[in-house]
Amino acid sequence: MGAEAGCVLAQGPDPVFHHSRAVGAHWWGWRQARTSSCLRHATTASSAWWSPVWPPFGPAPRRAGLVVGLHADRSCKYLLKNTSMPFMNCLFFIGDYTDFYSSRDHATNVGIMFRGKENALMPNWLRLPVGYHGRASSVVVSGTPIRRPSGQMRPDQTKPPVFGPSKKLDIELEMAFFVGGGNPLGEPIPIQKAHEHIFGMVLMNDWSARDIQAWEYVPLGPFLGKNFGTTISPWVVPMEALLPFAEPNPIQDPEPLPYLQHNDAYTFNINLFVSLKGKGMAEAVNICRSNFKYMYWTMKQQLTHHTVNGCNVKPGDLLASGTISGPDPESFGSMLELSWNGSKNIDLGGEETRTFLNDGDEVTISGYCEGDGYRVGFGTCQGTILAALPL
C-alpha cells in the first residue's frame, strides 16, 4: 500500500480494536501515536500528520520520509507495525448501504443477455444513477467466509419454482465510498458540495445469486439474491490520496438534468483485478482486469441524486458503484458476463473451468493507482465460498 489509508485493527488473544493508519507496508494505531511524543518531535512530521481528523495527505516523499524517520529513531520505532495483521475490521459502523448500477458496459451486457440488443438499456438508465437500498447488516470485512445462499429459483420456465442452494453464485467487482459528513433530513446535498461529504473508498465484492435474483426481482428489484453477503476491503483510502489520479468525466449523452451536472473531474484511474482459486489449485488465476474510470455516473452524481428528494445520509453510510465492467471481455466485472450467463466456460488452466462459483472457491479483488514511482493501494477484498446449510 503506497499511500495512507485507515481501518480498525485488533491484536492479541483478547483483541482490542484500534483505529489505525497505514503508510506503505506499515501502520500505527492512531490513539497510540497521539499519546506518543514521537510524531510531535519527528523532523519528518508536520501538523498535517497530527490533525485530530483525517487530514489532506502529504506527497509520497513526505510519507516515505516519515517511515524512515520513525525507523531511525529507536524510541519511536515501536509505533510502526507491519500491515499483515490477523484481525481487521471496518473503520465505520455502516448504518445504511446503497448499491448503484452505474457501469454502462455492465448494464448493456446484462440488458443484451435478458432483453436483446435493441432494449439493452432501460429508458431511465441514461437519465439518472439507478440504485437500490441494500442490506447493511451483511456487509463484512475481507477474509469473512461467505455461505452459499438458498432460495426460490425457476430454472425451467415451464414448471413451478423450486427451492434449494443457488447454482449461479456470482461475484461483482465493485468499489464503494463512505459518507464522511451527513445532511439533515429534507435538505439535499447540491452537486457543487457533494465532494465535501465523500470520505474515502474501498474495494467491494457484491456477491450475487443470479438464479435467485432472476426469479424474485420483478417488480421491486434484488432481495435474497443479494442480501446474504457483501465483502469490503478493510483499508479506507481517503479521497485526498486519490485526487492526483482523477480522470475527465465520461461524456454523458443525453446531457443530465441540471442538478446532476458538474464539470470537475471526479472519476479515477484505479486499476482493478479479480482472481479465483479453487480447491486443489496451486495458485489463483486472474479472471478480470478492469478500471474504475469506466464508470458512467460519478460518485458526486450518485450522492446528489440519492439526497435530491431530501433523503438524509449519515457518516459511515456506504454507497457502492455497481459492477465495474469495461469495453473488453477481460474487463467484465462479473462471472455472469465472463461466462455470458453460463453459455461458455471461464478457463482457469489445468482443465479447471467455471461458469459460476463452486464451494471452496476463493475470490480476491485487489486494486491500486499508479503514480510516478509509487502506488496508492487498497489492500485486498477476499472471501471463500462455504457450502449451503441443509434446510
From TrEMBL:
GO terms for molecular function: fumarylacetoacetase activity; metal ion binding. The active site is at H106. Its EC number is 3.7.1.2. Its cofactor is Mg(2+); Ca(2+). Keywords: Calcium, Hydrolase, Magnesium, Metal-binding, Phenylalanine catabolism, Tyrosine catabolism. Pathway: Amino-acid degradation; L-phenylalanine degradation; acetoacetate and fumarate from L-phenylalanine: step 6/6. One of its GO terms (biological process) is L-tyrosine catabolic process. It holds the Pfam family FAA_hydrolase. Residues 98-385 form the Fumarylacetoacetase-like C-terminal domain. Substrate binds at Y101, R115, Q213, Y217, T323. SUPFAM superfamilies: FAH (SSF56529). It catalyses: 4-fumarylacetoacetate + H2O = acetoacetate + fumarate + H(+). Signal peptide: none annotated. InterPro entries: Fumarylacetoacetase, Fumarylacetoacetase-like_C, Fumarylacetoacetase_C_sf. Ca(2+) binds at D99, E172, E174, D206. Mg(2+) binds at D206, K226, T230. Belongs to the FAH family. This is Fumarylacetoacetase.
